[in-house]
Amino acid sequence: MSWLLPSALAIAAGASLVALALHFIARSRPFAESLPTARFIPQRPVRARARSIALSDILLLLIRIVAILAFGAAVAAPVFGAARGRVRRIILVDRSRDVGDDRETRDSARALGRVGDVIIAFDSAATRGGDASVLDSATKNDAAGSLSAAFAAALRAGSRLSSSSDSIELVLISPLAAEEFDAATRSIRDDWPGRIRFVSVRGAPGNERTPTVESATGQNDGVIAGLSLIGIMRPAGNVRIVRGQMTVADSAWARDSSHVVVHWPANDSSAGWQPRPTIDAIGGLASSTGTLIGRFPRAWTLSGAPIARWSDGEPAATEHSAGGGCIRDVGIVFDPASDITLRAPFRGFVARLLEPCGGARRTARADSALVATIVGTTRVTHLATAAALRDRPSETSPWTPWLLALGAAMLLVEMAVRKLDRAAA
Amino acid sequence: MTGPSYGALLDAVRGVHWQARRAVTSPIAGMHRSKLRGTSAEFTEYRLYRQGDDPRRIDWRLLGRSDRAYIRLATDRAIIPTMLVLDASASMAFPLANRAKWVRACEIAIALAAVVHADGDPIGVAVRDARGAERVVAPRTRRGVVSEIARVVDSAQPSGDDPLAPRLAALRAARIAVITDLLGDADEVLRAARVRMAAGNEVHLVHIVAREELDPPRRPMLAADPEQPTLQRLLVDSTRPAYENAFGEWRAEMARRWRAAGAAYIEVVTDEPAPHAVRRIVDAPGIGRSRP
Q: Which of the ends of chain B has fewer CB neighbours closer than 10 A, N or C?
């Protein structure tokens, strides 16, 4: 037997002791009882001590203590049948694009897994499976990995396993690529109350490169001028900026491997996109690499995979695949008189638009210091205990209602005994 | 109608009579000795005729034999209107469990009413009802007055600490029986009773005492006066003898003062059956025992 909230038992025991003490203290001052001839009693201090305790008081004390303990036990919620000495595993299997060979991760998981273990396959989201069958769906995909999502799923699974095991081991099979970490990863990992067993697998090659931009538009264009300041403008590059109408040649160029055509019309007439019913103005936009604050007209409704958004969430730039490359539509029109493209925020914002198709993949392994914060054993060396993972608010005990009923019944009995005691007095 | 709970009580006091302590002055014929001497059939003595006497009362045969005019005197019998005053203060609801003092007081009041009514005397009652309003049944002889008194008494609930003396002073009856525990305005009640007795009325005091007041529970208790909640005294083994002495002396003092004032004083303890108490009340010392 175990208790979901053992501290309630301690509180109940304390309350029982207080009740016991109050009984003795209370008896030192007798109860006020009606006696019309009280005036004939000589005046004495009413703090005089009683010399004996009536039997009814002991009965009342016992009833009260039983009621208090019953309520305490009801709140503490006894649970019977929890396994003793049993260790269960939660295996996190990386299936993101950062994995070099997904067969390697699956083989590692199969080698570690046992009956009753929980396997969670994750990329940017996590999928929980009760057995190894989940590995069949853990094939590599194009989504970036997220350790935060994996740890969150592990915490939920650990809470479920806590009622049937004593300790839980968390196993992580992943290349631990840099892009799998985010700002929340460290804090979510710290919520896991034990060590993590890390099984390293080979990572996928990255696609990071230095963009070089070519454009037929002259330096008088604000965007081109801004890019020139970065120093990436070349006569022939791997990114082409089209500030006017797209041509067949531009589309054909985009189909070549790793070519990116950024169709960024300088004005309304240069685009064939669906116009908005009304052109409105909006105060900012953001990409994964930067933010621009200003007042921009919004003329089009774009379709495709968003790579930058207006401040209200509507896509401001989208990406379409085209053969081996891709075409990016950017519906952001700058005031020709504005110098916003010459400033630093523009350079941060535009970096996302110049990344390789599908976005830059930082699949290189994270630096060792970062990895140590997740799987290092300097701080926590033991397995996570079931008690530490127990999600007490969501667990219930079938004994709780009966114990509450017992406590209520004891209170009724106490009332009846008190009434009888008074009547007898 | 009298409640069924009083049936046995009324049966137990059937045949009991309550004679007036002294001759009464009522002009209405009854069973009590009257101060007036008139023309009733019960001859007492002759008296010489005086100017103003009714000539029809002259004994003509004696005039013929003695040549002197005598008139026949006879002892008249008269009624004695009686009022029962019932103390309904909070102290009468003791002990709280069974309110024995109040129950005994009600039983005595109803039994005395039945006795008085059976003697042909007017009987009434004055008591405060459950809402604190004064309920008075004026002295009557008509059939059903005992039931009416029982209803009025049953409607009362002992509470509060209303004084009894003003009620006693306002009554107009030749015989007044006060049923109380004397734990309220005892001195004022005695003063008002003296005024009534000076006016020629009979006053009977029925002092109700609870057995639990005479012998409180043998355990430490903080005794609180129900009419003065702030008065709390500790009753323990060390204070019990002093309590018993003080209470006994007070009761003796009350009996002495009331008897000295000319009232009939009877102490009734709650464990005494009401019919027995009623017989002691009507046979109280100083009360005439003559039968009509």
A: N
- Is B23 a domain residue? no
CATH number at residue B193: 3.40.50.410
Tally of domains in chain B: 2
Instruction: Look at A128 and B107; give whichever has higher pLDDT.
Output: B107
Element (H, E) at B127: strand B123-128
Which residue type, as a one-letter code, is found at position B221? M
Instruction: Give residue B37's pLDDT band: very low, low, confident or very high (50, 70, 90).
Output: low
CB B171 within 8 Å of CB B163: no
How far is the alpha carbon of B5 from chain A, nearest alpha carbon, in Å?
23
Map residue A231 onto helix, strand or coil: coil
Cβ pairs A/B, distance under 8 A: 103
Contacts 24+ apart (CB under 8 A), A337-341: A338/A222, A338/A294, A339/A222, A340/A222, A340/A292, A340/A294, A341/A222, A341/A223, A341/A225, A341/A226
Q: pLDDT tens across B180-193, in order? A: 999 988 999 999 99
What contacts B178, CB < 8 A, 6 or more positions away? B85, B87, B164, B168, B189, B193, B203, B204, B205, B206
From chain B, pick out residues whose CB is under 8 angstroms from the CB of A423. 97
Residue A351 contacts by C-beta under 8 Å, 6 or more apart in sequence?
A: A287, A289, A290
Residue A137's pLDDT is: 72
**Assigned CATH class of A87-206+364-392:** alpha beta
Residues written for chain B: 292
pTM, rounded to two decimals: 0.47
Residues B47 and B192 in one domain: no
ipTM of the complex model: 0.82
Dihedrals phi, psi of A420, to nearest 5 degrees: -65, -40
B187 half-sphere exposure, CB direction, 13 A CA radius: 0
Chain B residues within 8 angstroms (CB to CB) of chain A: 90-91, 94-97, 181, 183, 210, 212-213, 216-217, 219-228, 231-239, 242-243, 246-247, 250
- Indicate the length of chain A as a whole number: 425
Same domain, B73 and B201: no
Do the Cβ atoms of B160 and B89 come closer than 8 Å? yes
How far the first Cα of chain B sits from its last, in Å, is: 29
